[in-house]
């Protein structure tokens, strides 16, 4: 039994030895705790000495090659765990007609030629909120969530909505789908309540979206075209051009726009800010880059900060057919069908085979190998929009004179940043 779950290797920092000494049922709980408090040193030892760590509940992979294999082989490693949380939404499916059709539709309505205006919108909205804050703000609720919700309302077409409602609907869906799986029971106190909250949020969101598309449909009939994603989706559905894209599918995909925007954007922006504020010399460079008209240099600082402090440090999949990971190495392991596999992409972004000198903060690193927006079939649909929103939110903060963090991030017992206070020199 011991050998089944933990291959013995020579440990560097002692994590594997400590795991080996624990009862089987306590090992994942301890590893999960280290992931929150000692992540990079833990991952370094795992990459070097046990890149495929088998535990009773799941298997963990930490090297770049294995993480990419898990995320790109959708026929071998599926998103089956999404299904109970997301029903028939295309994201909970792999190589299906619904997945390809509806993802293609959503990519077409999220017009990449509007990225410049996306950034301008975020800049203006963030600048206004920060100016009105008069020198102090909880940057989570007062800026990052607020701008993201406003973007959904004003750019995606969710008009006549309450920001608090949009937040609740998005929050519980994200929480349940990505932070309330069976393996999360070691950190989640009341998983049943989270499911109930997500179900209630989904029902209320559905009621709102039905009214929204009814309103949009009436507007289209009298010649009013809002030219936002909500309207574009409805126009396509009403045209009859796609037989299997009825109003019910419009509603499913509109819900995905909300759920995929708010908490993901806020969390990433907060994590980038935290990392930059903890690096005074790098912060000075980032502030200087933020002053330039061309944001491309500045964006590199945000993306590199997210490599050190990602909002999504891992992705989970289910093995569908027997396969081998770490093939051709002394650490090769055979993974059985039904095994939950966690690809720790935070670790993969410190693998020297893909990231030279990984401990060096290098804002000029290419983005190609990063996992900020996932990789493979389930790469983030809105990665281009999210990239603009996240980087510009951080940029607007760093444009504030003398800005500094005056608190640590408070998660309030959950998976997302809930409060993070900043202060700066405010002049009327």
Automatic annotation (TrEMBL):
<keyword id="KW-0408">Iron</keyword>
<dbReference type="GO" id="GO:0004497">
    <property type="term" value="F:monooxygenase activity"/>
</dbReference>
<dbReference type="InterPro" id="IPR001128">
    <property type="entry name" value="Cyt_P450"/>
</dbReference>
<comment type="similarity">
    <text>Belongs to the cytochrome P450 family.</text>
</comment>
<dbReference type="GO" id="GO:0016705">
    <property type="term" value="F:oxidoreductase activity, acting on paired donors, with incorporation or reduction of molecular oxygen"/>
</dbReference>
<dbReference type="GO" id="GO:0005506">
    <property type="term" value="F:iron ion binding"/>
</dbReference>
<dbReference type="InterPro" id="IPR017972">
    <property type="entry name" value="Cyt_P450_CS"/>
</dbReference>
<dbReference type="InterPro" id="IPR002397">
    <property type="entry name" value="Cyt_P450_B"/>
</dbReference>
<keyword id="KW-0503">Monooxygenase</keyword>
<dbReference type="InterPro" id="IPR036396">
    <property type="entry name" value="Cyt_P450_sf"/>
</dbReference>
<keyword id="KW-0560">Oxidoreductase</keyword>
<keyword id="KW-0479">Metal-binding</keyword>
<dbReference type="Pfam" id="PF00067">
    <property type="entry name" value="p450"/>
</dbReference>
<keyword id="KW-0349">Heme</keyword>
<dbReference type="GO" id="GO:0020037">
    <property type="term" value="F:heme binding"/>
</dbReference>
<protein>
    <submittedName>
        <fullName>Cytochrome P450</fullName>
    </submittedName>
</protein>
